[in-house]
Specification:
- With 211 residues, the chain is an alpha+beta fold.
- It folds into two domains: 4-83 and 198-210, Glutaredoxin (3-Layer(aba) Sandwich); 92-196, Glutathione S-transferase Yfyf (Class Pi), Chain A, domain 2, CATH 1.20.1050.10.
- Helix content is 53%, strand content 8%.
- It contains eight helices and four strands; from the N terminus they run E-H-E-H-E-E-H-H-H-H-H-H.
- The protein has helices spanning 14-23, 43-48, 67-77, 92-115, 126-147, 161-174, 184-194, 197-210, and strands at residues 4-8, 29-32, 56-59, 62-65.
- The chain has a four-stranded mixed β-sheet with strand order 2-1-3-4, covered by helices on one side.
- The longest helix has 24 residues, at 92-115.
- The chain is globular.
- The two termini are 25 Å apart.
- 31% of the residues are buried.
- The structure holds glutathione (GSH).
């Protein structure tokens, strides 16, 4: 029996950690948490993550939360999978964490505001919240788009956890009718991601959970 359990919800940001566990070929177990039914608000789940969020990663009875640190943990535990480029200079390792935090702290909250504006405002103001989130998303994603202009992946030709994060952001936005028409490099990045075995397996597991 595996001692790693990922608490996840299909389609949510736990997809990033799920792809990484697949990429690392880790022996792990998934515990699906139905956010729609409020499973994450139960006393039982709050014992796992008092913040009532997925993902959470249980490792031999201890629990780690927050995507960037779960990613860092998986990357460190499975070095052969090369989930983050190996770096040996001063700030480079911290820069990688900074990149992951850009996804989790800058872009992810905008994704939520764009997709579910009524979480943050009355119905009468929802359109305004959505429009402002869209403008800010374009600003943030233009940086990603430019970075992908001359390379397949975020860190050049080496695939990394950042690509899994970018993929989740884009696929989540696409479910909310976000257009990629002026972000062709991101559209191509998504196509490239869909060809990876780890992504195919992660999406298949999410699909089975939804049935
Ligand atoms: N900062 C957290 C955010 C996690 C998060 O917002 N997860 C969402 C799913 S994408 C969630 O569990 N939402 C449930 C809720 O807010 O009620 C991370 O990066 O892991």
């Amino acid at each position: 029996m595996s001692n790693i359990t990922l608490f996840a919800m299909p389609g949510s940001c736990s997809r990033v950690s799920l792809i990484l566990l697949e990429e690392a070929k880790a022996d792990y177990h998934i515990q699906w948490v139905n956010l729609m039914n409020g499973d994450h608000k139960t006393a039982e789940f709050k014992q796992i993550n008092p913040k009532s969020k997925v993902p959470a990663l249980a490792i031999a009875g201890e629990v780690l939360t927050e995507n960037p640190m779960i990613i860092k943990y998986i990357s460190t535990q499975f070095p052969k999978a090369n989930l983050l480029p190996k770096v040996d200079t001063g700030l480079a390792e911290y820069q990688q964490i900074s990149d992951l935090c850009f996804c989790s702290s800058t872009i992810h909250p905008l994704v939520t505001r764009f997709c579910i504006p009524t979480f943050f405002a009355e119905e009468s103001c929802a359109t305004s919240v959505k429009e402002k989130a869209l403008a800010a998303l374009h600003e943030g994603l233009t940086w990603v788009e430019q970075r992908l202009a001359d390379s397949t992946w975020w860190y050049g030709e080496q695939w990394s956890a950042m690509d899994a994060y970018i993929f989740w952001i884009i696929t989540r936005l696409q479910r909310c009718n976000f257009s990629l028409s002026d972000l062709p490099n991101l559209a191509q990045h998504t196509e490239n991601m869909l060809k990876r075995d780890s992504v195919i397996w992660a999406l298949e597991k999410e699909k089975l959970a939804n049935q």
